[in-house]
Amino acid sequence: ADANGEDGVTLVSNGVVRITGLVSLGNGFAVDYNGLSISANAKVYIYNSTLAGNSGWGLIADVINPTTDVILYNTSTFGNDAGPTFNDGGIDIF
User: Fold this and answer.
1) 62 and 34 in contact (C-beta within 8 Å)?
2) 17 near 40, Cβ under 8 Å?
3) Positions of the chain with pLDDT under 70
4) 24, 44, 58, 73: which has the highest count of C-beta atoms within 10 A?
5) Which residues pair with 8 in a beta bridge?
6) Which residue, 52, 50, 56, 51, is CA-closest to 81?
7) pLDDT for the residue 61
8) Could you tell me whether strands 59-62 and 91-93 are parallel, antiparallel, or unpaired per DSSP bridges?
9) Three-state SS for 52?
10) Nearest Cα to 50, choosing from 16, 1, 85, 86?
11) Which among 54, 59, 21, 53 has a CA at the least distance from the CA of 38?
12) Strands (DSSP E) along the chain, which ranges?
């Protein structure tokens, strides 16, 4: 997902989510949109992905158990929060 005027990728799932090789760059323009937004009732696995230069969060995940339900392998987030509020950043898991 690249240079969308909204979130790069939005997922809502009741099952396990597995993402491999996602590149989400420069989404949201001047409004606080995210590289990857997930709402899941199960574990989320993200492998070999890059979330960079988005105007909001690189990754924002709404899960049942924030301490164990999101697993990142070889995934980077950098240069996010380019939007007007500067309240966002790399990763928000709640």
Assistant:
1) no
2) yes
3) 1-3, 30, 82-88
4) 58
5) none
6) 56
7) 94
8) parallel
9) strand
10) 1
11) 59
12) 9-13, 17-20, 23-25, 36-40, 44-47, 50-52, 59-62, 70-73, 76-78, 91-93
**What DSSP line would sit under 56-77, residue for residue?**
S-SEEEE-S-TTTSEEEES-EE
Report pLDDT for 75.
94
Token duo for residue 12: 């809502």
Query: Residue 43: what pLDDT?
Result: 94
Amino acid at 80: N
User: Of 71, 16, 65, 25, which Cα lies nearest the Cα of 46?
Assistant: 71
For tokens 């323009």, what's the residue? Answer: 29
Mapping DSSP to helix (H, G, I), strand (E, B) and coil, where does residue 8 land? coil
